[in-house]
Amino acid sequence: MRGGLRSCAAWFTRLLRTDSTPRPMPVLPVSPITLAVLAAATICVAVLPIVLYRRWRMPFALNRRDAIAGIAVFALSAMVIERALNDYLLRQNAAASGWLSNPLAFVVYGVFIAGICEEVGRFIAMRWLARRASNPGRADGTALAYGLGHGGAEAWFVGVLVQAQWIAFGVLADRGQLDTYLANLPPESMLRIHVLLASLSPAMAGIFVLERVAALVFQIGLSVLMWRGVRAGSRAILPLAVVAHALIDVPAALSQAQLLPLVAVDAIYALVAIAVAAALIRLHRRAA
Fold first, then answer.
1. What are phi and psi of 266, to 5 degrees?
2. Which of 45, 46, 71, 165 qualifies as a FRET site for 148, CA 20 to 30 Å off?
3. 203/154 Cα distance (integer angstroms)
């Protein structure tokens, strides 16, 4: 798949360089089967946190307040604070962007900025929820609800909304309306969109579901870890959660730095997610 992407990108780049006369961008239609599979995968990811919340609400005494806190913390920490820091350090600050152009430095920065932003927000929220809980010593219902909110918000903001946009682009490309719809974009951006559309396949729907489900499992696991640490009054829980979050993000950061193939990343996440899910099941069976 990567070889095909490079060939397609090179062909489009030569087209742009050899002729400066404006012309319509070549449209590569997306298979209706691919669009249907991607849409089904997106719907599955969208409803999974909701289904889990409804199923666990009674057995674990989930509270909507805890889930809303998770949604709010992810939106603030990841979508506002982390993005603002990334924009400043990677684009606006020449010294920082030059230092972070080193792949190793980029990986270290990427994993720790996400861990610090999200885990500090999770820690503050958990402290607040613990003070307001009617029974702070109860089982992990608060952590599960918070994790579903935090992980569900991540699934929607990072996965569902982005995937829905690409499905819409694919429909427009099939209708021959994409170039008209994105007429204000520069040629380079249009080129990237066409190359990414050409790479869409049913297999990518499976990869998308795997990544989003694994991320949800990790967010629930990190929430249980933080909740138990906060309840126990542990001073080490925040740095421990930051390191754990950073370690989870290492494979993805290595892939972004082109140091690890995507297949290896997905395999690692699948195995780790299964291990985390099994550990959570054992914990709650003991509590029951």
1. -65, -40
2. 165
3. 22
Phi, psi of 12 (to 5 degrees): -65, -40
State how far the Cα of 114 lies from the Cα of 249, in Å rounded to an integer. 8
The per-residue pLDDT for range 176-196, each reduced to its tens digit, is 888 888 888 888 888 888 888
Cα 179 versus chain centre, distance: 28
Q: Write down the pTM of the prediction.
A: 0.86
Residue 237 half-sphere exposure, CB side, CA atoms within 13 Å?
A: 20
Query: Which pair of tokens denotes residue 135?
Result: 């029974």
Contact residues for 279 (Cβ-Cβ < 8 A; gap 6+): 221
DSSP of the chain: -HHHHHHHHHHHHHHHHH--S--PPPP-PPPHHHHHHHHHHHHHHHHHHHHHHHHHTTTTT--HHHHHHHHHHHHHIIIIIIHHHHHIIIII-HHHHHHTTSHHHHHHHHHHHHHHHHHHHHHHHHHHHHHH-S-TTS-THHHHHHHHHHHHHHIIIIIIHHHHHHHHHHHHHHTT-HHHHTTTS-HHHHHHHHHHHHH--HHHHHHHHHHHHHHHHHHHHHHHHHHHHHHHT-SSHHHHHHHHHHHHHHHHHHHHTTSS-HHHHHHHHHHHHHHHHHHHHHHHHHH-
Residue 51 structure tokens = 């289904």
What is the spatial distance between Cα 180 and Cα 40, in angstroms, rounded to a whole number?
Answer: 27
What digits encode the pLDDT tens for the residues 51-87? Answer: 999 999 998 989 999 999 999 999 999 999 999 999 9
Asked if 220 and 151 touch (Cβ cutoff 8 Å), the reply is: yes
Q: Residues 133-142, buried b or exposed e (16+ Cβ, 10 A)?
A: beeeeebbbb
